[in-house]
Amino acid sequence: MASSISSKPFLSGSFSSSNSDARYLSSAVVQISVRPVSRRRLQIQAAGSTYGNYFRVTTYGESHGGGVGCVIDGCPPRLPLSEADMQEDLDRRRPGQSRITTPRKETDTCKIFSGVSEGVTTGTPIHVFVPNTDQRGHDYSEMSLAYRPSHADATYDMKYGVRSVQGGGRSSARETIGRVASGAVAKKILKEFAGTEVLAYVSQVHKVVLPEDLIDHDTLTLEQIEGNIVRCPDPEYAEKMIAAVDAVRVKGDSVGGVVTCIVRNCPCGLGSPVFDKLEAELAKAIMSLPATKGFQFGSGFAGTFLTGSEHNDEFYIDQHGKMRTRTNRSGGIQGGISNGEIINMRVAFKPTSTIGKKQHTVTRDKKETELIARGRHDPCVVPRAVPMVEAMVALVLVDQLMAQYAQCNLFPVNPELQEPLLPTLEPETAEVPF
């Protein structure tokens, strides 16, 4: 019996078995209605390699692959941009800078492949690529068999069931090249638009702690930070920190430390209430960096030792008629929204996981063993983490700046309560930003 499918409904019921009916059924085409099964489509956004909503950055590449880089989507058009704008920060991040960093030799020379024409951004995705040129994959032959303690080797296997063995793959700090390159673009936007500056420096290496009152955040300069190989703006404490790194470096060990980051001239109003508070966004971005283990904002944990009357930042009106706070224990953010004061935060970095000392571990086939890791690694990641922290902070602020402009500056602001994000331009020198 032949059959076909049509949209005509199939009528069920009892049939009489007369001869004419039997002859009819033997020659008739049976029509069956089939209702398509509606299946719910499962959309999985699982990758973890993209940050931002309006200024979106995706990093790619692995430590010992062909190269690393990023794609920046949402960058405003007509921003003057060249490789040199990114190269300055990439040079601060690159390996082989001094004896207290990894000896791996990479120039980290970047190339812009799209999104820039005749020296300005076009508003389309910007593709930045940095080749890997000094690879030694054979240094990681042992790591293909055994897991390095406190590294991501084991958890990558647990998650994916496969991993790039050489250099740690995506878990390597080499992934941060894409962050630093895109962060340089973000810093330029902030500087051009609002005069905002993002500066980070090393405030602790192992047990050497820089006293907070030694650094004036109002006058701190990049030249002070870059004045020594450990990136501590105080020369005396810088020497102590370098000695602390040297002491463990010669033993094949490592130490951690703290990076302090400040933001000057941040526009008021960045950040949103409840789940998208500015310090929450900063914490997420900062803690996504490799080797981070702690984040403090404003007074941080020290504020828990104060009373409310001691901790509160009282308001006053300055000589320019602007509302300010006499102290800044809130760290420049109140209620999850920037208030115009200096934003300050501290980030704790653990000792480098890969060290040259024998350690107990297990193999991929679940057998206990001992491992002496080879390869070239920082005895202290903190000095090279400085531009990484700056980059992530800048990426957060640009994304939040765009969100604030779209939501709260689409219509004229309330001049009695708000400050316009767009700078006031003098008629004779008026120029549109960018």
Write a compact overview of the structure shown.
With 434 residues, the protein is α+β, with helices and mostly antiparallel strands. The chain has helices at residues 19-27, 83-93, 153-160, 176-194, 222-225, 235-249, 278-287, 308-311, 382-408; strands spanning 3-5, 30-32, 50-51, 56-61, 67-73, 111-114, 116-117, 120-121, 126-131, 197-205, 208-209, 257-264, 292-297, 315-317, 323-325, 333-334, 337-338, 343-349, 359-362, 368-371.
Structural description of this entry:
With 434 residues, the chain is of the alpha+beta class. It is built from nine helices and 20 strands. Strand 10 and strand 11 (208-209) form a beta hairpin. Helix 2 packs across helix 4 (176-194) and helix 4 (176-194) packs across helix 9.
Mean pLDDT over the full residue set: 86
Low-confidence stretches: 1-18, 20-27, 424-430
The end-to-end span amounts to: 75 Å
Provide the structure class.
Answer: alpha+beta
Secondary-structure element series: EHEEEEHEEEEHHEEHHEHEHEEEEEEEH
Fraction of residues in β-strands = 15-25%
Oligomer: single chain
The strands making up the biggest β-sheet line up spatially as: 3-4-5-9-6
What is the number of beta strands?
20
Compute the CA-based radius of gyration: 29 Å
Shape: globular
Roughly what percent helix?
A: 10-25%
Sheet with the most strands, sense and barrel status: 5 strands, antiparallel
Helical element count?
A: 9
